[in-house]
Every structure is written in structure tokens, then in C-alpha cells.
Amino acid sequence: MPTHPGSCHCGKIAFEADGEFTTAIDCNCSLCRRRGSLLAFVPRADFRLNGAREDLSVYTFNQHRLKHYFCDVCGVAPFSEGIGPDGKEMTAINLRCVPDVDVASLTIRQWDGASH
């Protein structure tokens, strides 16, 4: 399984994620719609933060199920963490923050987060 590096715009929040990223979720919730995220979900074990957790700023809303992390320098939100429907820890990666993933080649699945 390939490892993909990613980061916020300024590089303060850097990470690596393992996976074959060929699809992404385009969620229409009030947050994702505004920030333009294309999301891929991976098990927490397949995600590694390259830096200190203290450098992360966090935002939660609605049911507070996901912790949406963003950079307090550049404002970019590269990933979120939460518990998946199966009860396991997962990370939602904003594939727009992973330079070696060609977002134009992704199969995009629409998710009606506004109704959930």
C-alpha cells in the first residue's frame, strides 16, 4: 500500500497516509461545502502526524463526532478524526492536501452530510 505525504499550505501540519486513493467523498455539510474538501477515510493506524499535536487547532460542530483539525497559521484543514460507523477510530483526509494525488482523476461520490 503506498504512503502519501500531505500537509496544510504552510507545512506546519504535515502527515503521511497509507492507501490507494482513487475515490473521494464530496460532502455538502455546512463545513465541507465551504472549505471544498474532497475526503478519503482511512483507519487511524494508516495515518501518521509528522509533528506535535499541540500545533493543531480543532473545530467541532453539530453532533461533535468529528474533530476537524486546521492550521492556525495558514488556515487550511488537512484532516479530521473520529469514530466510524463500525466503531473504529478513523481519519478523514482532505485529498486536496495530498500533492501526489491527482484530484482530477478521482471518482467523486456525493454525500448528503447536510441531512445527517
3D architecture notes:
The protein has 116 residues and is mainly β. It has one domain: Metal Binding Protein, Guanine Nucleotide Exchange Factor, Chain A (Beta Complex). Helix content is 5%, strand content 42%. The chain contains one helix and ten strands. The strands form three sheets. Strands 4-9-8-7-6 form a five-stranded antiparallel β-sheet, with no helix packed on it. A hairpin with a 6-residue loop joins strand 6 and strand 7.
Q: Which architecture would the CATH scheme give at its second level?
A: Beta Complex
The total tally of domains equals 1
CATH class identity: Mainly Beta
Q: Give me the oligomer status.
A: single chain
* SS class: mainly beta
**What fraction strand?**
35-45%
Number of helices in the DSSP assignment: 1
Question: Could you give the count of β-strands?
Answer: 10
Q: Considering DSSP H and I runs of 4 or more, what fraction of the residues is helical?
A: under 10%
pLDDT average, as an integer? 93
Rg calc: 13 Å
Biggest sheet, spatial arrangement of strands: 4-9-8-7-6
- Uncertain spans, ≥5 residues at pLDDT below 50? none
Provide the succession of SSEs. Answer: EEEHEEEEEEE
* CATH topology title: Metal Binding Protein, Guanine Nucleotide Exchange Factor, Chain A
* Distance between the ends: 32 Å
